């Protein structure tokens, strides 16, 4: 299943056009949840009702986002500092919609306030059907290693579904998380950036035990260009190009001379010029690989 971009409850209840755009989705994305954040229970309930009118499969409440622009508004992981508020929000949202409600949390605000077990029980008691745990604190951000043992402890502590999250970058990681934590599902986040193959490769591994090969450099660049076309179709020009720039960084990460290529792409607005630059780069990468193979065989 998929989850929408993070949607501000205040933007929804105030009928902000850009925020309303975030709750739209294509039928191919089902099953899909619309993910909302905020800190005022009645506004979160109103936002959930608006989001539910788009007919998603579930509503997801985000108490995990560590971004400053979110926590400065007392949203995301900031709510973990006030479990009474967390309880009020979850209860209000569950009562406002007929679709299932899920909740995402982190382990706590920092290592001195690990509240994930207590928060998980509150979430269950309020009527949510699943809880996702990113096994880091807000203070950690994305640094260090996620502590998957926390996911295992939460699974033992609550009766609702537990979704594990944190440091999933390969099909093998998914299997390890299932085996180590006993969780009901695994959420893939950063590991999919520039790597949409991770979903198919993981499903194939779960079904067959076979690890499919990593995509080639040309396949990654061709996918990046397809992604660009989809961004432009969705956002228009030049917004689609601007939004794609961060994604190009992920697709090209680790390639030789990729820093220079990323810098060049970020100076371009013409889709034809971007396409020509990246196709030429893909050919040069293949020539370098072919040359290396020849030298090895010699």
Describe the 3D structure.
The chain has two domains: 2-208, Alpha-Beta Barrel (TIM Barrel), CATH 3.20.20.70; 217-297, Non-ribosomal Peptide Synthetase Peptidyl Carrier Protein, Chain A. 51% of the residues lie in helices and 13% in strands. It has helices spanning 9-13, 17-21, 41-52, 68-71, 83-96, 116-125, 148-157, 171-181, 197-208, 217-235, 239-252, 258-265, 271-297, and strands at residues 2-8, 32-37, 58-63, 101-106, 130-134, 161-165, 185-187. It has a seven-stranded parallel β-sheet. The protein is globular and about 60 Å long. The termini are far apart. Residues 293-298 have low confidence and may be disordered.
List keywords for this structure.
globular, 298 residues, 2 domains, seven-stranded parallel sheet, Non-ribosomal Peptide Synthetase Peptidyl Carrier Protein, Chain A, TIM Barrel, 13 helices, alpha/beta
In short:
The chain has 298 residues and is of the alpha/beta class. Helices cover 51% and strands 13% of the residues. It has a seven-stranded parallel β-sheet.
The count of DSSP E runs of length 2 or more, i.e. the number of strands, is 7
Lateral arrangement of strands in the main beta sheet: 1-2-3-4-5-6-7
Q: What is the averaged pLDDT score?
A: 94
Quaternary structure classification = single chain
Please tell me the CATH architecture of the largest domain by its name: Alpha-Beta Barrel
The best one-word shape is globular
Beta-strand residue percentage: 5-15%
How are the secondary structure elements laid out?
Elements: E1 2-8, H1 9-13, H2 17-21, E2 32-37, H3 41-52, E3 58-63, H4 68-71, H5 83-96, E4 101-106, H6 116-125, E5 130-134, H7 148-157, E6 161-165, H8 171-181, E7 185-187, H9 197-208, H10 217-235, H11 239-252, H12 258-265, H13 271-297
Parallel strand pairs: 1-2, 2-3, 3-4, 4-5, 5-6, 6-7
Helix pairs in contact: 3-5, 5-6, 6-7, 8-9, 10-11, 10-13, 11-12
């Amino acid at each position: 299943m998929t989850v929408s971009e993070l949607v501000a409850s205040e933007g929804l209840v105030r009928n902000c056009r850009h925020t309303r755009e975030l709750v739209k989705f294509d039928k191919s994305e089902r099953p899909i949840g619309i993910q909302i954040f905020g800190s005022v229970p009645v506004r979160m309930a109103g936002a959930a009702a608006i989001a539910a009118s788009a007919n998603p499969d579930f509503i997801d409440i985000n108490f995990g986002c560590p971004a400053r622009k979110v926590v400065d508004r007392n949203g995301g992981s900031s709510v973990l500092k006030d479990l009474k508020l967390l309880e009020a929000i979850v209860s209000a949202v569950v009562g406002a919609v007929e679709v299932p409600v899920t909740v995402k949390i982190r382990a706590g605000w920092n290592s001195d306030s690990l509240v994930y077990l207590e928060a998980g029980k509150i979430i269950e008691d309020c009527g949510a059907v699943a809880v996702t745990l990113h096994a880091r604190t807000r203070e950690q951000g994305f640094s260090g290693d996620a502590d998957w043992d926390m996911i295992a402890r939460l699974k033992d502590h609550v009766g609702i579904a537990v979704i594990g999250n944190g440091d999933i970058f390969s099909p093998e990681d998914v299997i390890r998380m299932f085996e180590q934590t006993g969780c009901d599902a695994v959420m893939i986040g950063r590991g999919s950036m520039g790597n949409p193959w991770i979903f198919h490769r993981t499903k194939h591994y779960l079904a067959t035990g076979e690890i499919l090969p990593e995509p080639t450099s040309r396949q990654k660049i061709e996918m990046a260009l397809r992604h660009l076309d989809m961004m432009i179709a969705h956002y228009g020009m030049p917004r689609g190009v601007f939004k794609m720039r961060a994604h190009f960084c992920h697709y090209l990460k680790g390639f030789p001379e990729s820093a220079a290529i990323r810098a060049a792409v970020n100076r371009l607005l013409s889709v034809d010029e971007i396409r020509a630059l990246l196709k030429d780069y893909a050919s040069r990468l293949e020539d370098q690989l072919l040359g290396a193979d020849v030298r090895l065989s010699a």
